[in-house]
Design a protein that fits this description.
By secondary structure, the chain is of the alpha/beta class. Helix 1 runs parallel beside helix 2 and helix 1 crosses helix 8. Bound molecules: NADP nicotinamide-adenine-dinucleotide phosphate. NADP nicotinamide-adenine-dinucleotide phosphate binds next to helix 1 and strand 2. NADP nicotinamide-adenine-dinucleotide phosphate (NAP) binds next to helix 1 and strand 2. Belongs to the short-chain dehydrogenases/reductases (SDR) family. It is an enzyme of class 1 (oxidoreductase). It comes from Candidatus Parabacteroides intestinigallinarum. GO terms for molecular function: 3-oxoacyl-[acyl-carrier-protein] reductase (NADPH) activity.
Length: about 240
């Protein structure tokens, strides 16, 4: 049985992606860091639609937590493997660079980049060994493509994730593992709740924020069999904000 793992699956884009994957008939592992109630709610929503899911709490930036949680899962699922990985966990800690506390720099880079590294490194060997290969989708951002003032940490982390996506895609292409990134603009989630929405919507050619379900549809496509020949790509989804 091929499973999917969505990091940061408890809320926002991650929750919508879990639901999308479950609708594709793929059992999903919902990772979260601390918000158990939100993770339980994602699980409930998946099951309410007849899908199958389980929870896995770990902090993606802590190597020992990642490896222990995934080893536990593998021990409990000797005949299964995680063929679909969505590296979605992320945070923002905005500030002008000259005023940015060190921990805000490191937290953003570690969760985005170390998180991608630890989780992906752990799952890749099994993906590469199996006949059906695997699919990896990394959640980048418009911020990582063009740079956003006040987000040097976030832009740096997401731009680095794009570089890692392209490098890894070339490493594993011959093993039928695809690696792509998705770069959303402004999407309605907890992460964007504190932003001046009316002002920002005027900058978006489509004059609105995107919905988590719209990003989830794109991720679902990249995970599907139809996307087998797409790899090393960064696909923007931003209402025309950066074209
Ligand atoms: P969100 O609503 O704030 O949700 C963040 C998710 O990440 C939560 O599930 C959270 O878990 C999880 N998480 C945070 N730190 C973690 C850690 N150390 N280990 C494991 N999980 C962790 O954010 P979102 O808007 O859905 O964003 C999801 C991804 O899309 C992020 O990578 C973000 O940078 C990217 N993105 C978002 C937008 C946007 O406009 N919303 C635009 C571009 C890119 P808990 O629930 O346990 O806290």
């Amino acid at each position: 049985m091929r499973y999917a793992l969505v990091t940061g699956g408890s809320r926002g884009l991650g929750r919508a992606i879990c639901l999308r994957i479950a609708r594709m008939g793929i059992p999903v592992i919902i990772n979260y860091q601390s918000n158990e109630a939100a993770a339980e709610e994602t699980l409930r929503l998946v099951e309410a639609e007849g899908g199958s899911a389980e929870l896995a709490r770990f902090d993606v930036r802590v190597k020992e937590e990642v490896e222990a949680a995934l080893a536990r899962w593998e021990a409990a699922h000797p005949d299964d493997y995680i063929a679909y990985l969505v590296n979605n966990a992320g945070i923002r800690r905005d500030n002008l660079l000259y005023m940015m506390p060190e921990e805000d720099w490191h937290d953003v880079l570690q969760i985005t980049l170390d998180g991608f590294f630890y989780v992906t490194r752990c799952l890749l060997p099994r993906m590469m060994r199996r006949k059906h290969g695997g699919r990896i989708v990394n959640m980048a951002s418009l911020s990582g493509l063009r740079g956003t003032p006040g987000q040097a940490n976030y832009s740096a982390a997401k731009a680095a994730l794009v570089g890692a996506t392209k490098a890894l895609a070339l490493e594993v292409a011959a093993r039928d593992v695809t690696v792509n990134a998705v770069a959303p603009g402004f999407i309605e989630t907890d992460m964007t709740r504190d932003l001046p929405r009316e002002e920002l919507e005027k900058e978006v050619p489509m004059r609105r924020f995107g919905k988590p379900e719209e990003v989830a549809a794109l991720v679902g496509f990249l995970l599907s069999d139809e996307a087998a020949y797409i790899t090393g790509e960064v696909i923007s989804i931003n209402g025309g904000l950066y074209t």
